Amino acid sequence: GKKLGYTFNNKNFHNVSLGQGQEVVAEQALDLAAKEGHWVILQNIHLVAKWLSSLEKKLEQHSEGSHQDFRIFISAEPAPSPDSHIIPQGILENSIKITNEAPTGMHANLHKALDNFNQDTLEMCTRENEFKSILFALCYFHALVAERRKFGPQGWNRSYPFNTGDLTISVNVLYNYLEASSKVPYDDLRYLFGEIMYGGHITDDWDRRLCKTYLEEFIKPEMLEGELLLAPGFPLPGNMDYNGYHQYIDDTLPPESPYLYGLHPNAEIGFLTQTSEKLFRIVLEMQSRDTSMGEGGVVTREETVKALLEEMLEKLIDEFNIAELMAKVEERTPYIVVAFQECERMNILTSEIKRSLKELDLGLK
After folding, report:
1. What global pTM score does this model have?
2. Interacting residues of 64 by C-beta distance below 8 A, sequence separation 6+
3. Cβ atoms within 10 Å, residue 64
4. Within its chain, how far is the Cα of 43 from the centroid?
5. Residue 292, class by beta-carbon neighbours within 10 Å (0-12 exposed, 13-18 middle, 19+ buried)?
6. Which domain of life is it from (predicted)?
7. Euclidean distance between the first and final Cα of the chain, in Å?
8. Which of 41, 61, 142, 231 could form a disulfide with 260 if both were Cys (CB 3.0 to 4.6 A apart)?
């Protein structure tokens, strides 16, 4: 907006935060902007479900005969479930849609944490070595506490709104303390970060203890001796420039796994199951009831299912003949015993797949 001369000061830029009876203000702003060629931002339209049909009509009216520079920007929070999708189809179809996804995984979160700073930040402190080491450790700590939320109750007992403000204020505090004292006050810094900056969000005693323990591992005198591991296979880097740190993350950070958070690999099972279910739910929700084919033909859902079903039945392997396999074996080593157990399990699974597919076929008939 600023680049093209649209600002509040120029009176050609209108910002309306919806809710609390702001609908009339929004309509007036839209009418004026359509006439004069202004820009309008309507924030939080998910808060005014009843007004959305009026907004759709209003946008349809202004779609013809309005000033060519007239633009509307609309923001909404994502709906928690499919039945909460309230934005009218007309608005969605006529819009260019942009979503802002939070980064996922330690790699993206660590880069994003570091993106809050620049080369000037790294050079601002007279005690460069200590400042850079603790700043990088803080970035890792920030990425870790933010991303631990994905593990549900195994990550944190409650979900906390950790944000980039916590990180930038912690770095300012670090700078002030290092400039003011001759020794690095590790205990004071850990207390400020763990009990006040980040701890200020935490309401559970065990979570507070966990946060404190992380800081005890990441911020301690050994960090300046080049001996500190932030995660298995990821040592704290030495003195580098800003781009060097980004490169170091790309080159050295191990692949995403619960080990990066100090968790057992099993912690990921619940998170991955939840992610898969969510993905399948969205895919199902987006599927159309009827699928169009070429030359005007339409394939119903039932026909699609039937085709898949027949394909699966054809692909299914015959069950293993356990008796025949046993006859071939001379010595029953542990490996072979396990193989037999797996064959039996596979037979149970195969017969269940066959049974359920035949049942589904009967249902379709």
Report:
1. 0.62
2. none
3. 6
4. 22
5. exposed
6. Eukaryota
7. 60
8. 231
Euclidean distance between CA atoms 199 and 52, whole angstroms: 40
φ, ψ of residue 241 to 5 degrees: the values are -90, 175
Backbone angles phi, psi at 324, to 5 degrees: -65, -40
Strands (E), the chain: 13-17, 39-43, 71-74, 229-231, 234-235, 291-292, 298-299
Q: Are strands 234-235 and 291-292 parallel, antiparallel or unpaired?
A: unpaired
Q: Which residue has the tokens 């920030």?
A: 142
Side-chain-side CA neighbours of residue 127 (13 Å): 18
The DSSP code sequence of 215-258 is: HHHHSSGGGGGT--EEETTEEPP-S--HHHHHHHHHHHSPPS-G
Three-class DSSP category at 361 = helix
Structure tokens at 148: 């631990």
Supply the Cα-derived Rg of the chain in whole angstroms.
29
Q: Strand 39-43 to strand 13-17: parallel, antiparallel, or no bridges (unpaired)? A: parallel
Of 143, 155, 113, the closest CA to residue 270 belongs to 155
Query: With b meaning 16 or more CB within 10 Å and e meaning fewer, what string describes 232-269?
Result: eebebbeeeebeebeebbeeebeeeebbbbbeeeebbe
Diameter of the chain measured on Cα atoms = 90
Is residue 294 scored above 60 in pLDDT? no
Q: What percent of the chain has pLDDT over 90?
A: 38
The C-alpha angle with vertex 323 and arms to 317 and 327, in degrees rounded to 5, equals 115
Q: Which amino acid is it at 256?
A: E
What DSSP assignment string belongs to 96-150?
A: -----PPP-HHHHHHHHHHTT--HHHHHS-SSHHHHHHHHHHHHHHHHHHHHGGG
Q: What pLDDT digit, counting tens, does each position of 105-132 carry?
A: 899 999 999 999 999 988 888 888 889 9
Question: Among residues 107, 146, 128, which one has the least CA distance to residue 242?
Answer: 128
